[in-house]
Each structure stands twice: as structure tokens, then as C-alpha cells.
Batch of 2 targets.
Target 1
Amino acid sequence: MTEKQQVCVYTYWVTEVWEGSNMVSRSSELMSVSCSSGGGTSGGGGTGDPIATPIKVELKPDSLKKKFPCAAQILESLESYPQLSDFLAPFIKIGADSVKANLSWFDDPKLDWNSVGSTTYGETRSDPKQRVGSEIYLNSNMLKNSSPALISTVMVHEMIHAYFNNITTMQGYDVVADDSKPILERLSEYAKVSASLNGRDHLTILASYVGTIAEVVGLSDGNKKSKEVYFKLAIGSLNNDGKTPSNTFASTYKDLLDKINKDNKFSITIDNASQMISLNRSVPKSERAKCLL
Ligand SMILES: [Zn+2]
């Protein structure tokens, strides 16, 4: 038996100013709050409690929202889809009074943006100051140059990393939904065939979340492109298991990709998925989010 109690996910945009390696200022702005109504655990196969409409928050002129208003709009649109709320549901399951899953969003001009070498589109770090919070960094160059479809793909990708970062902590506070237990099992299964936590997360995403990412990104992008294109964007950034991949990573990755292709009659390969990311990385001005022009 559980008492009815409201638990909320707080989403922040955060702006940092750096001079060399020194951070000279940092401001955060509450962007939206999504609350569950509480009401006990759901039955088998349930998808959790309904989520209230995010609260609109007044903008401050010096905020990231001013620098990247389109990115803020994309994130708000993503948060409004029930497909995404369903996967975030364990974040907001009722639990101890003080348990809040804060996702703080940053733009980061220092993340790698190399055309030939490595590029880091986004990065998620556990927030050491919070028990179940994460900080999500989005590459400023991506926000300026990439297609809205790639930006939203990276946003959802990083939200899933944040979810995985925190799910074991949340389990300790008894705030993980019963129906998310298979996720914990899959995470430990894929940890055995991966060299890094990144690889573990990426195989779990490939096994369970690629369809959700593609669907939500397609909706927020007005489904201007084909379903296969949105799948390619979702898959193109998952072939990463740290600097030295585990021996079993590639074969597990291939099996999961084969299944996606068979189930959907797609012909996605690691190469054509990576090419799709490259195509969306620096697009002509007319194809970028209009308010970034
Ligand atoms: Zn990742």
C-alpha cells in the first residue's frame, strides 16, 4: 500500500561562462516541472501514472533559452509526448518525500566538434549534489548547425543515459516502477558484454528504446522524413563502447540491429546510420531551426 503523493521532475536550462578552464559564472533557470499524481504501483504491463502538463516558466533575458530558443522549444515539444513520458515514468514514481529527479540542461561550446575525429553531440553526467539528478550538456556547435531532428535525437538519447545513471539509485529509494524491473535486468545483462557503461547503455537503448526515440523525434519533426531515417539517426550514435570495445560488443550490436531490420523491413547498417548523422550534422541554414538563423 502506498500513500498518494506528488513527485515532480524539474527540468532546468543552465548557462555557464568559462574563461580558459575557469568557470566565471553559472546561472540556472527552471524550465518546466512534470508531476505525477501518485497513486500506488501500477499493475502488470502498466505504464505508470499520468503526468501533468509541464508548467510554463517565465524567461530571463540572459538565459540559455535566449541563446538557443529553438532548442528549448524542441525540448518542450519532446516532453509533451506520452511515449517519452512513459519511459520517464520511473523518474516520477512516488517515493520518499524528498526524491526529485532533476535534469539540468547546459549548452557546452567546449565539447569536441571535429569533422574527421571525434564529435561529442551531448554528454550526461550524474549530478553529485543531487541523489537522483543528472546534468545534460548539448554541444553548442550542434545547436547552431545541425538539423532539429538530430538535436532532438541527441536530447532523447541523453535523457535515457540520465535515466540509466539514476535508476539504480532510485531503486534504493523505492521509486522505480515495478514494470521497470526488466530494464534493470537488461542493464546488467549488457554490462557483461560491454567494456564501458556507455556501451552497456547503448546496447540497452538498441535493444529497447530505438523505436521510442525514432517515434518521438519523428513527431517533434513533423514526420518530414521517413521512419527509417529517424531510426538511422537514433542508431547512428550507439556504436560506441569506450576506447577499447569489448570482444562481444560488436556481435551483440549486430544481432540487435539485425532484429530491428527484420522487424521493420529496414536495411540499416552501422555505415549508413553514421552517414545519416553526418548529413544532419551541418545542414544549410534553411534546414536549421528557424529561430537560430
Ligand atoms: Zn550515448
Target 2
Amino acid sequence: MTVAQLLAYIAVALLLQVMAGVAFAMWRRLSTTVGPASAGMEDVVAAPSAPSGAWSGWREFRVVRREFEDAAQTQCSFHLQPVDGAPLTPYQPGQYLTFSLKVPGSVAAASVAERSITRCYSLSDRPDPTGYRITIKRVPPPEAQPGLPPGVSSEYFHDRVHEADVLQVKAPSGHFFIDPDASVPAVFIAGGIGITPMMSMLRWCVAEQPERRVHLYYGVRCSSDHAFKPLLQDLAAAHPAFKLNVVYGNPGVDDVLARDYQHVGYIDLALLRRTLPHGRHQFYVCGPPPMMRSLVPALREWGVQADDIHFEAFGPASVRPTASASTEPSVVISASMAVRFSRSGRTLAWDGQDANLLDFAERHDLAVDSGCRSGSCGACQTRLLSGVITYADKPDHDIPKGHCLLCVGKPQSALVLEA
Ligand SMILES: Cc1cc2nc3c(=O)[nH]c(=O)nc-3n(C[C@H](O)[C@H](O)[C@H](O)COP(=O)(O)OP(=O)(O)OC[C@H]3O[C@@H](n4cnc5c(N)ncnc54)[C@H](O)[C@@H]3O)c2cc1C
Ligand code: FES
């Protein structure tokens, strides 16, 4: 063997060693990184895996039990089991189910035939292979317009869905769910029925990560609206790492401070500053529009990183992305960015104020269907007659050719939509 050959062998051996080292390090990294936040392995418990066995389309579920969760009986839980008896898809605590309902036509609108509607309801318990639970609040007409009909789906569930009834359900989906990194305390902030995804995350945390510090701030009017009251009190008594902060806006005469609730007023930054320990927290916010509008920007102003603030709106978007919070590439707005809604006969100028075309349509009082508002359920799907739409992320819902999703789409050119 020549000296040159020997040197070549040594070089190849060294190269192989380096490659093996790099491959091992990458394997270690892939197998230990579970959530977006970095943490030691000892702090990470895998959340139930993403819905790999999820079914596509609709699946039949039977209502096996229903029960009220509040004294006023406006919030009702429905326990569901799959009719086919096959195992249930695991889900991420915080996700929701999508329902297709055939509801009676509106007598007021002179249409008595059944019609289909799509609505989403958060799973309100931790993952359980035997069944799902959702909890639905009855939605009355707006206070200022008592003559309007009440909420269609919530009224249908409360008045017409009984035990043994069968419902059409899409697999769990949604991007609002718990980060499994147990080293970062979680702060759940719920207003009214916004408690449902928090119940799922909270129940998962105390079962799987009993040492993790978890704070729940739950705002309701008074004890009659206070859902899951005995369960929350039992959890707080049994789990020292869980701090319960119930905030009554208007306590009843029989409501007792420290027994029924911990604070009076509203959940605001002052309360969080007063009661939360120093340090990094992950915030999860779900509540009525005024709460979302005030609290989410307040958290950002307080200095909480955008990645540590998770929120979900149950209705029309109430939180507008701020320039600093958004990571999306900005869409170039041109004078020709006209959006025509052909069925409604209106042409509007896209001015970039809205996060998506659904918010844009609603801001201009156009009636468009919606469900999840996050690209999963397909309820806002509309025919795209001309133009180009852009999506920041690929939507979960498979969009048929020639169609688009308003809730996650933005125009990239002038558009003509069928809506
Ligand atoms: C991801 C997600 C998760 C959700 N999770 C939950 C949950 O866990 N629990 C829950 O209860 N809800 C949840 N929701 C909300 C739920 O999907 C429904 O939006 C809610 O039940 C209301 O639907 P509805 O059909 O009853 O009301 P709608 O029929 O949509 O009516 C809504 C309101 O509009 C009023 N209205 C009726 N006609 C008019 C009119 N002409 N002009 C103006 N107003 C009118 C109604 O009186 C009512 O107040 C969730 C929503 C999303 C997007
Ligand atoms: S509202 Fe569900 S996909 Fe748009």
C-alpha cells in the first residue's frame, strides 16, 4: 500500500465516522422533538397523536347520554359513540368535531323543507377511546333584537337531539390544542362556553402531566351559568398544580366569594398580573368577542411572545392579526383587487384589512355559510368563477377544482365568487 492509498483510506474512514455521527444526532433530535417549544426530554409527554386513523367525510355517531352542565340548563353535554363500533380516532385536546344537521326549514322565511347546516363543537373532555363529548350552549336571539329566531343548531341540539339519535360527524380537527411541553405552565382563559376546549386540555393535563402548573381563568355572569362547577372544584382540590380562578361578572345574591368564585369583574391583564407567578407561560384564550378583542392584544402588549398565545373564536373573527404577530407574506394590494360576489350582486374592494375572505364578506354584511373558520369543515366552500386565491397554509379540507375556501383564503388577484 502506498502512502497516498493509506491517506485515502484514513480520509474515507474519518468521513464515514462523521456521517454516522451526524445521522445519529439527527435521529436523536427527531425522536425527542414533540412540540414547538424546546425542552428537556424529561418534560415532554406526547399528546395523543394527530388523527392518523381519522375517517374522511361523515361518520355516524349515536347520542348515548345527554346532561346539563350548569344550573340554568343552557349548556348541555352530548356523549357520542360511533355506530360502527370501530375504535375512535385520537385527537389533540382542544380540537373540535364538525356536524352536518338536517334542520327544519325556516317558517319565517316561508321555507318549511329541511335544510342542511354545518356547525363545529369543541370536544369538551380528554381523549377517550370509547366516546366523545361535546357541550353546547343554547344561543338566544341577540338582546337588541329579541324578535330574531334563536340559534338554529344550538336550539336543534337542545330541543330535538335525544339519546339514541344518530348524527353525522366529521373527524376531530383544528389547530387550537395544548402544547405538550410540560415545562411551560399553561394558562387557560375561558369566557362562557369558551370553557369547552379548556375542559379537554385541562382534563388531559391533570391526567397525563399532574406536575404541570396549570391556571384556569373562567369568566361567567354568576353561579347559574357556571358550567362543570363540581368537576372543576374537585379537580382543583385533588391537583395542587392546578389553580382555579372563577370570575363572576355579576354574582347572584346567594353566590359566595371563595366558595363559588374567586374574583368579581372581568378577566383582564390586571388580574393576570396580580395572580400569575413570574416566568414564561403558554396562554390559551377562547371567549366572546369583547374578551378576545381586549385580552389577546393586551397579552402581546404585556410582552408575551406571539407563539405563546393561542386563541380560538367560536364566531365571526374578533381578533385581527397585528403586523408583528403575523408571519404570512403580505399580499400586494392593487387598485384592481375587486372582489365580486355574483349571487349577492356586490363588488367590493379588498383593502387588506381582513384576515380572510370570510371576515371580509361578513364585515360587509354578506350572508355566507361558515362552520370551523379554519379550513377544515368545508362549510364556506364557494365556487371561484375567476381569479386567484392564496392560502397561507394548505387547508385540511380537500377543495374541489374550481372552488375555494373563504375562511382561510385571500385574493391574489381580482376575484369573481359565486357567493
Ligand atoms: C371551532 C369552533 C368550536 C366551537 N365550539 C363550541 C362549543 O364547544 N360549544 C358551543 O356551544 N358552541 C361552539 N361553537 C359555536 C357553534 O359552532 C355555533 O356557532 C353556535 O352553536 C351557534 O350556532 P347556531 O346555529 O345555534 O346559531 P345561528 O343560527 O348561527 O345564530 C347565531 C345568532 O344569530 C342570531 N340571528 C338569527 N337570525 C339573524 C339575523 N337575521 N340577523 C342577525 N342575527 C341573527 C341568532 O339569534 C343567534 O343569536 C364553536 C364554533 C367554532 C367555530
Ligand atoms: S368555515 Fe370551515 S372550511 Fe371554512
